[in-house]
Amino acid sequence: MSTWSNLGLQDSASPLMEQLTFFHDHALLILVMITVMVGYLMIMLFYNSYTNRFLLHGQTIEVIWTILPAIILLFIAFPSLRLLYLLDEINEPSITLKSIGHQWYWSYEYSDFLNVEFDSYMIPTNELPVDGFRLLDVDNRVVLPINSQIRILVTAADVIHSWTVPALGVKVDGTPGRLNQTNFLMNRPGLFYGQCSEICGANHSFMPIVIESVPSNYFIKWISNNLNS
């Protein structure tokens, strides 16, 4: 979870988020190199007093400054395309989770298990426990096992919502009448917080997401208790 002192991205909790972080650093390095080079050339223009009265054209330099940006763009485009295909690939999921956006809360259904469904509301500030996070904690967390391929299906019941958990590298729009899907794998236990990132009405800020990542045996115990209740 981000805190006030975080200037960069959150620590990743999935392989996809690791790849997104690597691509972010790669693109940022290229941007810094371009900014430094262009800044140096612009500063040098102020101090350069040489002129060439006979300069009519410079085909060589024009070829260089046309081809060089194209090559730099390829260095950004190829990793970006690879990442887009990785994000879109579904690898034989172990569990399917369905998330339905409402104004202004989330409903969840574990499609592989009978009658495991619940609503997840933000805990109001006056009911928040001492160790809770204001505007981020919910009454019913989504419990999922680590090191398992999770497929999530996202839709909405009223307006457009967006199911977003930054630590997992997941952002899926929930559109009424459509079913969007993506997948992720959590490689460490913990609590991962997210929010709706589509402006969906007056209480858009008050529909957080909390994923509780647990070992498989704890998840089986949790799902058994929900099936029995």
TrEMBL record:
GO terms for cellular component: mitochondrial inner membrane. It comes from the Eukaryota. Residues 1-91 form the Cytochrome oxidase subunit II transmembrane region profile domain. CDD domains: CcO_II_C (cd13912). SUPFAM superfamilies: Cupredoxins (SSF49503), Cytochrome c oxidase subunit II-like, transmembrane region (SSF81464). GO terms for biological process: ATP synthesis coupled electron transport. It is a multi-pass membrane protein. Its main location: mitochondrion. It is found in: Mitochondrion inner membrane. NCBIfam families: CoxB. This is Cytochrome c oxidase subunit 2. It comes from Spaniocelyphus pilosus. The lineage of its organism: Eukaryota, Metazoa, Ecdysozoa, Arthropoda, Hexapoda.
